Amino acid sequence: MNRTVDIVGVGWSGFGSITPDLSYKEMIFQAATRAYADAGIDPRNDAQGFVTAAEDYHEGTSIFDEYTPDQLGAVLRPMHTITGDGLHALAAAYMNIASGLMNVVVVEAHSKASNILTLDHITAFAEDPTFERPLAINPVALAGLEMQRGLDAGRYTVEQCAQVVVKNKNNALANPAAAYAAAIGKKPVLEAQPLATPLTRLMAASHADGAIVFVLADSDTAKRFKGKPVRVRGIGWANDTPALDSREWLDAKYARKAAEMAYRVAQIRHPRGEIDFAEVDDTFAYKELQHLEALQLTEPGQAGALTEQGATERAGALPVNPSGGGLGVGSLLDANGLARALEVVLQLRGEAGARQLHKANTGLAFAWRGLPTTSGAAVVLSN
Amino acid sequence: MEHLVYPSKGLSEQAFEKREVLFETWHVKAEYAWDTGVAIGKYLAELKEGRIVGRRCFKCKRVMVPPRMFCEHCFRPTDEWAYVQDIGTVKTFSLCYVRWDMVRLTEPEIPAVIDLDGASRGMGIMHKLGAVDSRAVKIGMRVQAVWKPPAERTGSITDIAYFKPL
Amino acid sequence: MSMRRVAVVGAGMTKFVRRSQETGRELSWEAVSKALESCEMSLDQMDCVVMGSAPDAFDGVHMKAEWLSDGAGAWGKPYMRGYVGGGTGVFAPAQGWYHIASGLFDTCLVVCEERMSPTQPHPQAAFNSIFDNFTERALGPNLLWIFALEMNAYMNRYGLKKEDIALVSVKNKRNAADHPASLLGDPNITVQDVLNSEVLAWPVQRLDVSPITDGAVALVLAAEPVARRVTPKPVWIEGVGWCLDTAYWTNRDLSYPTYVEEAARMAYKMAGIKEPRKEIHIAEPYDPFDYKELHHLEGLMLFGKGQAPEATARGVTQRTGDLPVCPSGGLLGVGNPIAAAGLMKIAELFWQLRGEAGKRQVPGDPRRGVAQAWGDLMQVGTVVVMGK
Questions:
Q1: Which among A242, C30, C95, C195 counts the fewest CB atoms within 10 Å?
Q2: pTM surpassing 0.95?
């Protein structure tokens, strides 16, 4: 108890809109091999636990847990899955170490979204079977409903949402692992096909494939490894209600609660002063703005204006999604949160190449589980 | 502890059949096209040619079927392809009188795990036995693959129709 | 290093039924309300919620934990679902344990829900897609195959007869007659009934198998200072363990569950148990099929390899025997709503160790018990040791 936990190695593979050359196992093996090399560990001897985040219907396999151990070196070891975001899996690993039960735990999440032919139908299958599903509305309409609510309340404008897309796709140009980078302006974003008004096609992240593996260790053990450790200072997660009729449509309550917990654990009292940069879920452009406010990184109703002023660009006062975010890198299903956290780790280690930020001592990663959920997780990482 | 059991209500099959209760039905449209990758891609392509291929790990010396590009015990890449025989030994079997949706069968299906010759000891695959009296099936029995005609093979485990006694 | 002590302080459950009128969210609520009632705590006092539930295909809802969350009491709380197939029900309390042991939380609500009945034409259909999508699914396999293949391998290895194994089914269905939540308790069932039942996938017959069931179970876990305030009789989680073997199940020796042994070793080490057969007084091993109880008793190192059937024949595992096994009635008797069935075993240990098991109470003041579940492709073991 009261042990500190570090991220001592990271590895990834894929990050393309398709990855036809590799099976999911082979893609994960690549990412794991790189993460273990980064940490300087042998998973068969040095790791006590393994956690994968995965959902059965994203894999097309019931009880996907069955297929998780081999490619991680986890055969006959304590391994389990979390049906959640990669950051929930990270939280599980954190707890296994903080409790004193384990010293080194591996976390993995991946996406083979390109292999799913009917993703919209599967997302709809997450809705309530009697109250919601029979209406047979594409779930993206829920994003339209929520965005409309924010516009109506004056939290942001359509132009500000478009500016989020412009920033993130341009940021992605400096990220070799981004599938959807573009030197794009606001006009095409605003004029793109409507998905569910006011949301246009370019305001929604497209899907990508990829695998991400992290190695976590308690801080004493971490000293023995060659990697440059990044401290997990705080972690938090929370759910709002799943019911469409009673959730908070304006504010992202799940993000507020998750961040409150993460800040409490990290002993952060003034997030705006103490967080240097953030990687936050931007599955839909307005979500970045909604999340920044819920995460207490801006005042309510200010995230859009700050975005227009350039404050959230890489050179701004609060860089947000320097990686390119989901809009630029691609949405990685259950691996979204680890993709956000991966960028935070690289920035903190000074290994972000052309997109390296000048001031990167403490960063926040935040993940939302996507439609139709109200489930989020946050992690605060520091040098 | 009786008071800690909630008196949840169980419904009868009849209540559903006679529609005495209301219910929603839904057919989920869940379709996938999985990337086979290197190891399984080769495995399926070789099945189409009437051959069974595995992978060898130089470290633990195992020949593994189905093939994999990494050795799960040594956690390292495997090293070379290794063909194994389509002859093997029944490691275990069942006589299954119900289909996957619990419809009864008059003649049983006979799933079995078969250790293939040329693969390392214990390296079996699952398949079905055929052309055999179900009462005669025994653990330890020697069996051989019966391949579909080349024109009917599609690059699937079902390119082997079944295994029959040798 | 010394770890934070965590206790179970409350438990509640629904009746186990073939087809519930309640939705999954409602079943979750029912179990939670009973668990909170049992320790006179309120939902506000729960710091976080852990959900356990097996395949989404059963309830027919993708990301079903999200959908179940408000029924499970997770509205506005940290909420997480762990998933190890059939092993989930005993993993969930281990997960609750690490939530509290981490120091992040002082209380945790653990909820396991399963509704198998929504899947049509038969819940077995949901198991089609557990097989490897490239190398096995095209053969049209069903779940009974792998159990039958494993059971046959076990019988063949030790020369066991169906009669030796049917004793387990008889014992558990008889025990379950005393369980108020039971679906299939039967005080009069005989070995002959089991042997005469319909052959499904030889050697598996109808009465070798647990039934399709809907149900939910909930526990309240608390850190030591809270536990001591809440109840004079906390039951401590002394050890947790879990282990996952390779997905290449056809490459393994199916006659012995090594992954259960590894999970047990982890849990026993944490609990300081050196001689499990002497130091454990009650066992609730996973029994979705009768042979599995025997298999698991061996994996838990409570009996030597191949020796659990003989001990069963001698009555050692009867409720009044030297090592009562599945005094609850197990999955074979109480029912098998997958994840909820595993958590039911933890609830049973809780009640037994507190002396509150009523007609099922094991004599002789038992002080320590072990529960275990199993799942995936005969691949995962989850173990929890509890003591008073």
A1: C195
A2: yes
